[in-house]
Amino acid sequence: MIHLCISTLILTVVMGQKSTDMDKLLNWCLDAKLHKTAPGPENSLHKQCSPWKDRSCCTEETAHKVHNDNIYNFNYNHCRNMSKKCNEHFLQDHCFYECSPNVGPWVVSETRTWRKERFYKVPLCASDCDAWFNDCAEDFTCTDNWSRNFDWLNDTGCSSKCLTNFCPKGSECMTFRKIYGNASNFCEKVWDHAWQYTKDSEPCMRLWFNGSVGNPNDAVARHHAHLIAGASTKHLDYLLFGFLLMILWRTICVF
Ligand SMILES: *[C@@H]1O[C@H](CO)[C@@H](O)[C@H](O)[C@H]1NC(C)=O
Ligand SMILES: *[C@@H]1O[C@H](CO)[C@@H](O)[C@H](O)[C@H]1NC(C)=O
Ligand SMILES: *[C@@H]1O[C@H](CO)[C@@H](O)[C@H](O)[C@H]1NC(C)=O
Ligand SMILES: *[C@@H]1O[C@H](CO)[C@@H](O)[C@H](O)[C@H]1NC(C)=O
Ligand SMILES: *[C@@H]1O[C@H](CO)[C@@H](O)[C@H](O)[C@H]1NC(C)=O
Q1: What band does 180 get if pLDDT is binned at 50, 70 and 90?
Q2: Of the residues 144, 145, 176, 184, which should be mutated to test ligand 3's pocket, given the most ligand atoms within 8 Å of the CB?
Q3: Where does the Folate receptor-like domain lie (predicted)?
Q4: For the chain, N or C: smaller number of CB within 10 Å?
């Protein structure tokens, strides 16, 4: 009996999402360096970020920076210059990161200098991931986990403080194909589980879509938000059930 009470309590704590509110889950902008506080329309968004312009977490200025500035001082050319076709996928991924209002169900807390929140295991459609990996397969890198494994050192030719990523000591530059082996391993590892490789037949996110006919990822977020909201009502039931059992237990067993 007491076992049951304890396990129901544990279940409630472990499953704690950042929110179980549908409206919040479906309109989430990360608490991070450049994100707006809430999604909204923009008159236009630069180039590859334009699909998000009707409902976006990024401003036009941010969309420009994604294409033209090095916002996080991240060097994609840490081995050799990245090919244009590969770089386009990383740009698209970066637009999703800054602009997508559909990550609410996958937001977790993190403490890094440039953000307090990140997304974790967002389902990425297999075909989008495959296209990304195939276009990068012959490009070069030296480590699989780009969020964590680089050495951040002062760039040469930088007079004041400006850290950038360098290949970790002892690592070797090899093709993406050698480093990652396959598309799913690549998408899941590169940004430390930001993405989860997911069959196209399941609800999954698109990096590439035609924004003028709507954002297909809205429905994916809605699907997962429903699951979370549903699960939280169940947990409430379990919690109530647990309390009832506890009261019953005390009445019967405590004397
Ligand atoms: C790499 O790109 C930089 C900047 O665009 C360019 O100056 C350099 O010549 C390129 N190097 C090679 C080997 O293509
Ligand atoms: C980089 O340079 C800045 C200022 O010159 C210095 O304070 C900092 O410690 C350096 N960081 C590293 C990792 O070398
Ligand atoms: C992809 O590579 C990972 C890591 O090497 C491996 O565990 C996984 O089974 C591979 N998946 C496929 C579909 O080959
Ligand atoms: C990336 O590195 C961090 C820190 O070492 C580790 O906790 C995490 O599991 C790694 N992620 C992947 C996808 O390997
Ligand atoms: C996007 O969809 C609109 C409306 O159906 C269409 O006119 C346009 O050509 C499409 N754009 C692309 C790039 O496919």
Answers
A1: very high
A2: 184
A3: 29-205
A4: C
